[in-house]
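lol ok so funny story. i was supposed to be doing the assay writeup but got distracted and ended up predicting the structure for this chain instead. priorities right. anyway since i did it might as well share w the group, maybe its usefull for someone
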Amino acid sequence: SWLMTGRELRGPLAAGLACRPRLALQSSSSEAALSPATEHLLSIGFSEGQVPKVASRFKQAFNPDVERSVKPVLKWLFSLGLSDLQVQKVVSNHSIIFRSSLDEYLKPIVQWLTEVGISDDQIARVIARYPSLLSYSVEAKLKPTVQWLLDIGVGEAQVAKMIATFPSLLGCSLEGKLKPTVQWLLDIGVGEAQVAKMIAT
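and the output, tada:
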């Protein structure tokens, strides 16, 4: 199948797919349209008990055209090195990912992470730990935040380490939280070099 290409499923997940019955769906047209997506949720290890909750989010989050909106995104997540459980976490917590264009939004974010020094192994962990990152604009949010960190004296290697360790930092408001916090430290007499060191550690 599309999910198996270049990647073999292992252990209980592979065994479970061989005997898992299809989830019974109600007869409304909107729920029937979700049937293919539901089957693919099952195929990446969601239990039948988990599917209704996730599917209810999907109903509002993506076009139910599985071939166009679901399969490519799931294949891409696996290609980045995310495990079955990590993909499940991303899908569960950030189903809006299926509304995002791979080429216009998702892939550029990963390319940007590479450019700021995040390794391939780290990219998988960053996305699994903070899937909301995939909804941010590179130009409007990610680049300005990193440039500000560089401007206040945080080194490039330190910035990469910060993103790899605490990717949620990129979700903080630059104007509403980061800059005011640094300004407060400066106002109480903390030197610029010490502020940069505090942020980086």
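The radius of gyration is 20 Å. Confidence is low (pLDDT under 50) at residues 1-34.
back to the writeup now i swear
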